[in-house]
Specification:
mainly alpha, EC 2.5.1.145, two-stranded antiparallel ribbon, globular, single chain, phosphatidylglycerol-prolipoprotein diacylglyceryl transferase activity
């Protein structure tokens, strides 16, 4: 008998049909996370003078490339699950079945955001800093999709919040008795990410980091949490090197990049950003002033008044 545990939702909840369409709950969770991130990031950039709607323009590039990056990172760190004799290679593209790696989405999304920022005159690092806490919110919402898919669980546990996984689940470890409870890694990551949101906002309020330094703090925080979660994950872990799963290596890289970003940008840009717009860009219908996080009583900086450039 199971006591004080977290039940997995019925398998039927993982998807539902509307006419001829099959809607996957995992995809809905990801979509809700994206919408939340767009709203939060736009609000944060608007407070600094960015025009409304510019985040939508940027994510038009970032989201598709982020999805592609997320899927292919997952596939190529789980090669044995997709490439074997008799494998259906179309499964490589079946993102609705789960398997979208955050680190891959960061790589693809970063490239897309860079393209979008260049097209619409937004400083890349200003966008990244505005996005940092929004990313953690989006990741938290997206992790509910793993819950509905009965995935992202860790080692067996007898703790009262152990997760119930049916023994018929393809990811259920061989040799364990039915009724074994597992660490709910999806829940741990949700909690870790939401704590990270509070910490990033506190850092921003106290230290006013700009030029990508807040995004660097995001990389460090997420990398630390993810490295621990991947170390106890059995659902299943990604292919690895030297006995260490690829996602743990990626977490170490994220931490190192976050530290490097903070150090380099602190030396290159000790002051505040003049605005969220690139030098020489005069936006259309933008706010006349921007927040420079100055602690003085001086008037806030205005948007650049040099020769206008248009997208």
């Amino acid at each position: 008998m199971l006591h004080a545990s977290i039940p997995s939702p019925p398998s039927a909840w993982a998807q539902f049909s509307i006419g001829p369409l099959t809607i996957h709950t995992y995809a809905i969770c990801i979509l809700i996370g994206m919408v939340a991130a767009i709203i939060i990031t736009q609000s944060r950039l608007t407070r600094r003078g960015a025009p409304s709607g510019v985040v939508l323009d940027i994510v038009f590039w970032a989201i598709p490339l982020g999805i592609v990056g997320a899927r292919f990172y997952h596939v190529f760190t789980h090669v044995g699950d997709y490439f074997f004799p008799g494998a259906n290679l179309w499964n490589v593209f079946a993102i609705w079945d789960g398997g979208n790696a955050l680190y891959g989405s960061l790589i693809g999304g970063a490239i897309g955001a860079w393209i979008g920022c260049r097209r619409y005159g937004i400083r890349y690092w200003a966008f990244a800093d505005a996005l940092a806490p929004a990313m953690l919110v989006a990741q938290s919402l997206g992790r509910f999709g793993n819950y509905f898919n009965h995935e992202l669980f860790g080692l067996p546990t007898t703790l009262p919040w152990g997760l119930q996984i049916e023994s018929t689940n393809a990811k259920f470890p061989a040799g364990l008795p039915a009724g074994t409870l597992f660490h709910p890694l999806f829940l741990y990551e949700i909690i870790w990410n939401l704590i990270g949101v509070a910490i990033l906002l506190l850092i921003e309020r106290r230290l006013h980091p700009q030029w990508g330094k807040l995004f660097g703090a995001y990389l460090i925080w997420y990398g630390l949490g993810r490295s621990w979660l991947e170390a106890i994950r059995i659902d299943p872990t990604s292919d690895g090197y030297l006995g260490i799963p690829a996602n743990i290596w990626a977490s170490f890289v994220a931490i190192a990049l976050g530290i490097l970003l903070i150090v380099v940008q602190s030396r290159r840009h000790p002051g505040v950003e003049p605005s969220v717009f690139v030098d020489g860009w005069v936006p259309k219908n933008a706010a006349a002033t921007v927040d420079t996080y100055s602690d003085s009583d001086e008037e806030p900086a205005t948007t650049p008044s040099e020769t206008a450039r248009t997208p």
